[in-house]
Amino acid sequence: VYVKIKKQMKYSIVENIRENLTPNQKPNQKPNFSITFKTELTDEVTGFEIVQTLIDNGRTSDSQIGEVDLDANGETTFSTYLEEPIIVYVFPTYTDAQKPKSYSLLFPLIPGEKAVFTLNSTGSYEDDRVTGVTTIEIPKHELTGSGFYKSWNETEKELSKIANGNANDREKTESLQREYMKRHNDNLGCVMQYVLHWRADYSVLSKKILQNPMVKQMKERGDAWAKESEELLKKQNEARANTAPGKMFSDLDLQNI
Q1: How many CB atoms lie within 10 A of CB 39?
Q2: Which residues touch 191 (CB under 8 Å, ≥6 apart)?
Q3: Is the separation of the CB atoms in 123 and 138 below 8 Å?
Q4: In the list 78, 79, 215, 217, which could disulfide-bond 31, CB 3.0-4.6 Å?
Q5: DSSP assignments along the chain, one per residue
């Protein structure tokens, strides 16, 4: 596989990437993770870009770790050594360089596991400047593989089935999803699918799984976002109160407008 290093890692999580070496060039570190990319869309897609998302105290930042090119059959396998799990985005790279980038999926890379990522459609992004309407079609994909990814795949299908069957009732959707997760609340593959892609209720998860570093990171990020949203709503309400009809100019708190 062709691996093109774009940027140094912020942290030393993926040793061989940080040192600009592919796994086979580092004799003391054998690959302990692999992901096979597949697609039939070879007229549109040339490969995939892998971008790590870093979470620190609820804040996120991204760091590109490489690109892989598809072979003539629309496949490629990326193998590497991981010191610990990392969370990544996968972006298709296109023959049309002007096509807007859209991530296919956010998911973890797990040491000791093998993943298979199949891209079935690239999705689309259309911004109508006349009407102001933006239409987004999410790329269609499937992620499966060994233990962790098999559980991920099964959970994604079940939670999506619940959501699609109750599209107009968010409360019912979330209730049924919670019930499903209560039965799978100590399976890391199930839990990571849930917390990364749905409105997660961490209270249904087992105490043991809540101590997992990845789950803790996602909970910290969710808590930080909730706090920011609460503070923003508070400021908006204060601003509305300060600009209410009949409010005297001398009474206005200009800093909150």
Answers
A1: 22
A2: 181, 184, 185, 205, 209, 212, 215
A3: yes
A4: 79
A5: --EE--S--SSTTSHHHHTT--GGG-TT----EEEEEEES-TTTEEEEEEEEEEEETTEEEEEEEEEEE--TTSEEEEEE--SS-EEEEEEEEESSTTSPP---EEEEE-TT-EEEEEEEE--EEEE-TTT--EEEEPPEEEEEESHHHHHHHHHHHHHHHHHHHTTT-HHHHHHHHHHHHHTTTT-HHHHHHHHHHS---GGGS-HHHHTSHHHHHHHHHHHHHHHHHHHHHHHHHHHHHHTSTT--GGG--GGG-
Q: Is the pLDDT of residue 138 over 60?
A: yes
Which two structure tokens, joined as six digits, stand for 198? 């749905």
| Integer Cα distance of 153 and 157 in angstroms | 6
Classify residue 99 by burial, with Cβ atoms within 10 Å: 0-12, 13-18, 19+.
middle
Torsions phi, psi for 26 (to 5 deg): -115, 95
Q: Is the pLDDT of residue 249 over 70?
A: no
At residue 102, what is the residue type?
Answer: S
Work out the number of other CB atoms within 10 angstroms of the CB of residue 41: 17
Pairing mode, strands 86-94 and 45-56: antiparallel
Contact 193, 156 (CB under 8 A): yes
Token pair listed for 103: 């991530």
**Backbone dihedral region of 249: left (phi > 0), alpha (psi from -120 to 50 degrees) or beta?**
alpha
pLDDT in tens, 193-241: 999 999 999 999 999 999 999 999 888 877 776 777 777 777 777 777 7
The residue with greater pLDDT, 42 or 5, is: 42
Contact 34, 60 (CB under 8 A): no
Report the share of the chain in percent with pLDDT over 70: 78
